[in-house]
Amino acid sequence: MCAAAVNAFGTTRCLSAPNVCVPYTGLSTLESYDNMQNESRHDWERLAATAEFKTLLRAKARFIVPATVFFIVYYFALPLLVGYAPALMAKKVFGVVNVAYLFALSQFFVAWALAWLYVRAAGRFDKLAAAVIAKEPR
Amino acid sequence: MSHALLMFLGFIAITLWITWWAARRSSGSSQFFAAGRSLKAWQNGIAVAGDYMSAASFLGIAGIIAFQGYDGFMYSVGWLVAYLTVLLLVAEPLRNAGKYTMADVLAYRLSPRPVRAMGALSTITVSTFYMIAQMVGAGALVSLLLKDTGISYQTAVTGIGVLMIVYVVFGGMLATTWVQIVKAILLIAGTILLSILVLAHYGFSLGAFFDAIGQVTYTNAQGARVTQDFMTPGLRYTPPYGALDLVSLGMALIFGTAGLPHILVRFYTVPDARTARNSVVWAMLIIGGFYILTTFLGFGAATIVGRDFIAANGGTNMSAPLLARALAGDLFFAFISAIAFATILAVVAGLTISASTSFAHDFWTNVLHHGRERREGEEVRVARVTAFFVGAISILIAIVLGPTANVAFLVALAFAVAASANLPVIVLSLFWRRFNTAGAVCGLATGLVSSLVLIALSPSIMKGGAIFPLENPGIVSIPLGFLGAVLGTLLTREPRAEQKFTELSVRANTGLGAERAASH
Description:
The complex is a heterodimer.
Chain A: H1 2-10, E1 12-14, E2 21-23, H2 29-32, H3 44-49, H4 51-84, H5 86-90, E3 92-94, E4 97-98, H6 99-134
Antiparallel strand pairs in A: 1-2, 3-4
Helix pairs in contact in A: 4-6
Chain B: H1 2-25, H2 29-34, H3 41-52, H4 55-68, H5 70-97, H6 102-109, H7 112-145, H8 153-201, H9 206-214, E1 216-219, E2 225-228, H10 242-256, H11 261-264, H12 273-305, H13 307-312, H14 319-368, H15 378-401, H16 407-431, H17 437-456, H18 459-462, H19 474-490, H20 495-510
Antiparallel strand pairs in B: 1-2
Helix pairs in contact in B: 1-8, 1-14, 3-8, 3-12, 4-5, 4-7, 4-12, 4-14, 4-16, 5-10, 5-12, 5-16, 5-20, 6-7, 6-16, 7-8, 7-14, 7-15, 7-16, 7-17, 8-12, 8-14, 8-15, 10-16, 10-19, 12-14, 14-15, 16-17, 16-19, 17-19
């Protein structure tokens, strides 16, 4: 199925405007992309090049990348330990309550804590985004 | 058992009133598909929870924990943590860049007809799997609960199908949302009550409750009475493949949620990305609270009702209602069963509206008619007709299938398809400049085909002679979905898609030019 897709999109066709080359999809160019929104009102390239926008992207990446890596590692530690370290996970902490159950329970609180931290950080992102939009003439 | 019927009729009356109210306010596409984008964060948050906590959560998880102890709780954990993927990566960019469907975000910078066609196909596949699970749950309930009232399984399933068609066709997203909100509140109330009763059974001593979990007695497959510690992992996921299956399940759960079309469309019902974010947090609080309480539902059923009794009286899916009967008699049993019905009804309505929206908006308008409505209101009309067919087809499938497998497990398969086909292309189209149309089509196709084929070759379908040893295909099919998307991209070039990435990125990150709430 991938081969077919490559054939279908592999060839490109240049239309009257010399700098507009699009993959040939069997449609006319104008129809082949969505015009859902009235999109050309803003100069997206210029906005993307502003220092404000770059600051926004950097700030978001600085939070989102480590947060995502952390929650994926923390989450998969649970099935991996349950699967490959059953003796450790079956260790009783108090009564029959074992490491496995406490670790599972901790996932809920860690998820909530991370969500709370994200909402706090996102308040900052909103301000940075407003600064980008302010660059755009109304 | 007519109490259950009466309570359920009460719920139906409320939901029909909601539908009537919504139908009078509903006009125009953004009203029908996205409730005018004017919901508040708490409303959408509860509705997300109501859309998400399906028969699988309430009936299925309680059943798996009651039968296999701790291993069932792994579903609960995965289903909450999954919302971090939604919160951190998907919800806000989707709200900023899309309009009505998951495929909107893909079509933004890719060639819309192929990606919308594939997106609609995958949306409908995921929704169908999910729907089958809900209907099986409904079947199990009905065959146990209403057998004395003379209502057959077929009649009840047809009734549920007709109701979900009515909600969606007449009330659109607004009615669906409020049905989900009412259901979520009922479900939480029922779960809290049931948990309190479990604790009361043990004299409000957590210690006594956990001691009981430490020694659950049941009859095993060989017919011998055994006593086991249900808190210890390993009752469901056993060597040699148990550990891998557990990881595979985890991958399907935490990456699948962010690819579930009926959850994603909920973020179009709020005015902006900030509200979308806050509604995820509301949903996480409610969903997390509910899943923690599955400890009481599941282990309560294991210790108070017992595996043998549940197996002889309706099977795993009936654990929570049977627990209610054991604790507080027939009236409470009826109440909990009515809640389970309401749960199913609200979820199938959500599935129906997202499948119909995708067909009408992605396939009919954008693939067949180049993004233009030929007549005012055509898209909504097509969606209504689709909802009717989706309803009719699910009624048929449910009648053919009847109540068999555990519904949590069936839904986990829907998550695997969503995680393998949808998530890779959503994430790559939002974050990878080089990503293109061939990559999206390839990723959707490989994810969809590989997850479906692996399910067909798994022990769930092939039983003993399975070619693929794992129950859940996620650990193989999710990487394959990503691989397909990356290879398809690298083998082709599409300068326009890369150029449009700049625009998508500015939109997704700032909300500039996003669809606005309808004013009214």
